[in-house]
Design goal:
Radius of gyration: 17 Å
Order of helices and strands: HHHHHH
Strand content: under 5%
Number of strands: 0
Oligomer: single chain
Shape: globular
Distance between the termini: 27 Å
Largest sheet: none
Amino acid sequence: MNDSDPKPSAHHRPLPLPARLLLLALAGVCIGLGVVGVFVPGLPTTVFILIAGWAAARSSPRLSAWLESHRIFGAVLRDWRAGGYVSRRAKWTATIAMAVCAVILFLSEPGPWLAESVTLLLVCVAIWLWYRPEPPAA
């Protein structure tokens, strides 16, 4: 294998069966949360799909291939693996969802320290996200 090989599983030795099963379960849970995140503002679809892709690449080549070829999730994984790229659309979607969550937190009045702490965390995530490179134009 050469260093430009995009398949992360090619760089890892096979894991024992219990570890693969745990990673497969993690991948399944993260796929489920990612799907829910498509419909629930504030639940980070992209992060869960990236975790699912990582876990699937180490536990199930079939699930990993399915995720990579998925109509919605595949581009996110391919962009990330190609260079840590995040599309501008994903950045805007995540930023808007985080802003909506922050507003909801302040309006629901869970306590100022909680709303401020979570909003600070969301701002840090947004800053990190916007510093990620965007995929090269096709």
